[in-house]
Amino acid sequence: MLNGYVKQTSNSDSLDLGWDRNITVIEELGSYTNARVHVGADHKVRTVVGWTDLLGGSATTISAYRAKWHGAAGILLCGGNSGVRILANDGEAGDGNAHLTSGWGMPVMWIDEEDDLVGFDHAEA
């Protein structure tokens, strides 16, 4: 069982203590600088980072888990206290939060198809 909390910020909605925690961690994949994931209907590869509200909002490490949620296997990406942020590619507007790095925020990211996870960049030691 995985417990978590993400607070409401301009990056994402909150993920409070009442969220559906019916997640079983199968394997902890590690902490990384970012993940590269096929995202959206256009299936473009985008970079996903953890997000914190410290210092006005900035990227932080992302943690990845192979997990089951409601019986379905997938990959769970968790970030900082403000969730995760999918960084927009060049020329994309993102969610319009001008004070944040262009992209889209969410509390956590669930990846149904493991093939949609392209890879990780390791955090520097």
Verbal overview:
The protein is mostly beta strands. It has one domain. The protein has strands spanning 23-39, 44-52, 58-60, 62-69, 72-78, 84-87, 103-106, 108-111, 117-122. Strands 1, 2, 3, 4, 5, 6, 7, 8 and 9 form a nine-stranded antiparallel sheet that branches. A hairpin with a 4-residue loop joins strand 1 (23-39) and strand 2 (44-52). The model has no long low-confidence stretch (mean pLDDT 85).
Gist of the model:
The chain has 125 residues and is an all-beta fold. It has strands at residues 23-39, 44-52, 58-60, 62-69, 72-78, 84-87, 103-106, 108-111, 117-122.
List the helices and strands and how they pair.
Blueprint: E1 23-39, E2 44-52, E3 58-60, E4 62-69, E5 72-78, E6 84-87, E7 103-106, E8 108-111, E9 117-122
Antiparallel strand pairs: 1-2, 1-4, 1-9, 2-3, 2-6, 4-5, 5-8, 6-7
Strand content: over 45%
Largest sheet: 9 strands, antiparallel
The span between the termini is 29 Å
Summarize the helix and strand pattern as letters.
EEEEEEEEE
Helix % is: under 10%
List the total number of helices: 0
The helix/strand class is: mainly beta
How many domains would you count in the coordinates? 1
Unreliable runs: none
Give the total of beta strands. 9
Basic shape: globular
Quote the average pLDDT.
85
Radius of gyration: 14 Å
